[in-house]
């Protein structure tokens, strides 16, 4: 099978990029030919994972991944715009017309699903659509996107969703395949964590720190940690984003000090990170968007405790 995937991809941070990375690894392991067209080169620095270059080059040179990244900016024009749809589409069409391909896949509706849809229309190749949670919530019924996204879902050869989001895509899609949140790599994550047995219990928040960091429960986590016996419980923060400075100021006022915030790690380093932890927080207390949590499934595979509610914090 020869598959061209249009999606978020490392060094972009987040669940969709991680999911795409592990899907690419599975396809390559199966002997498929895989291309990824992405705009990772244009991601904001706050959401860019450092240190990915060597591993991505290994995927290209040793595993045969065809990686096409929009690393150069578009020509300056008025009104200014990153022109992601046009540039991703151009790169996708150029790739598809230089060889024989079986299908196009996209993950996340905007702009990748739109690009996959247009490329399918222009080449006649089938288009498999995958989505997250925030794209369904933010874009599917928004008046600026609703018409084109209805076409994306309706004309897809298959829409891959989960049970939670099936009702949202069912009115549009002609073909639906439901799957659980795909586990990244069971062999990579199937090991018991090995933090020091005589040290404190190590709990961690791992994820984006955006403007709405309270929706991730970060304020509750820090307030809870402030009243714990810190010889018994340790808190690690692993993440980055545009809300990091605001969160640090709030944390300084709450704890009287800052806890160090470790830079986010790429998908292939997550098993190593989990091996040093006892538990991870996946709270999402006030989230308006119900996302599929790859992080929670990975953590459980690694033998970690997944803390999904404030009530469970009292039993640590």
Q: Which structural traits does this protein have?
A:
single chain; 316 residues; alpha/beta; Rossmann fold; 2 domains; 7-stranded parallel β-sheet; 18% strand
Describe the structure in your own words:
This protein is α/β, with parallel strands linked by helices and 316 residues long. It contains twelve helices and twelve strands. It has a seven-stranded parallel beta sheet with strand order 3-2-1-4-5-6-7, sandwiched between helices. Strands 10-9-8-11-12 form a five-stranded parallel beta sheet, sandwiched between helices. Helix 3 (84-96) packs parallel to helix 4 (109-123) and helix 4 packs across helix 6 (146-155). The radius of gyration is 20 Å and the shape is globular.
Describe how the helices and strands are arranged.
Elements: E1 2-7, H1 15-29, E2 33-38, H2 53-61, E3 66-69, H3 84-96, E4 103-107, H4 109-123, E5 127-130, H5 134-138, H6 146-155, E6 158-161, H7 166-169, E7 176-178, H8 186-189, E8 201-208, H9 218-226, E9 233-240, H10 244-255, E10 261-262, H11 270-274, E11 279-281, H12 294-301, E12 305-307
Parallel strand pairs: 1-2, 1-4, 2-3, 4-5, 5-6, 6-7, 8-9, 8-11, 9-10, 11-12
Helix pairs in contact: 3-4, 4-6, 9-10
